[in-house]
Amino acid sequence: MMQKREDYSLDVPLDGPPAPSVPTLEHECTLSGVRLMALPPGQVEIGYVAKAHMLDVNLNALIHEQAVGSNRLRPQCCPADSVSWAPVGVDFRLRANNHLWGLLLEFDAERAHELVVERLDGRSLPRDFLNYRPRPRAALFARMAIDDLRRGGEDRLFLEGLALAILGDTLSSMDAPPSLGPAAPRGIARALDLIEARLGADLSLAEIAAAAGMSPSWFAESFRAAVGEPVFAYVRRRRLDRARAMIADRRLALGAIAHACGFADQSHMTRAFRRRWGG
């Protein structure tokens, strides 16, 4: 077996044979016909022709490369808090660099059919690949599942309920137009990389636009069209996401976390947390 490459959270090289399923991850749980996997941040490369239905809950806003039914990878804009669906037999290839945790779910075909008949009003399962589209409720449930899986996945009934809720929310999006447009400008990918590398710094629109090779006004419009939100709304959300992850890690004091994530001080970070999550 090929050794997993350093810095890769999911590594099935695209120049090798496709996998029938996602390799075993550290934080996962298999229930009755449903496998939930918490995917840690890091590089991702995988090609597979799935023997089970695959549902991917993506919490990042990023430019990745993907191919469906083809060997030719194309850059795509993947919005944050979005979901994709790959039914049994679909040839799917992906290369990405995730900054946040994600959730993968594999549904045994027979079990998935039972779920939609018994508990989801008999809705039909998608027969074609369903590209990434925003599903905030599914993303919320995914965050809860990731937290539980990282603690050991002991509450199996809770996880099964979350898996069902995510599947139901995904099916309800089938009639919505896909949000993933044509190939996104590579300049936006460079801008996302800069933002991620300098979240703790005093970023300016001009600096980020320069990394993308665009004027500030053109960049602001292009970024919103590609990512789905204004530049500094995205920066603020990423700072909060990183701060929450660092707080959960419990290695640094709150004041140090605030400065590391680009907030003026702990009070500034606290106010931002309350605006986003309440409390």
TrEMBL record:
Keyword Nucleotide-binding: no
Signal peptide: none
Pfam families: HTH_18 (PF12833)
Gene Ontology molecular functions: DNA-binding transcription factor activity; sequence-specific DNA binding
Lineage: Bacteria, Pseudomonadati, Pseudomonadota, Alphaproteobacteria, Rhodobacterales
Keywords: DNA-binding, Transcription, Transcription regulation
Record has Transcription as a keyword: yes
Organism domain of life: Bacteria
Listed Gene3D superfamilies: Homeodomain-like (1.10.10.60)
Residues covered by region (Disordered): 1-21
HTH araC/xylS-type domain boundaries: 189-279
The protein, known as: Btr_1 protein
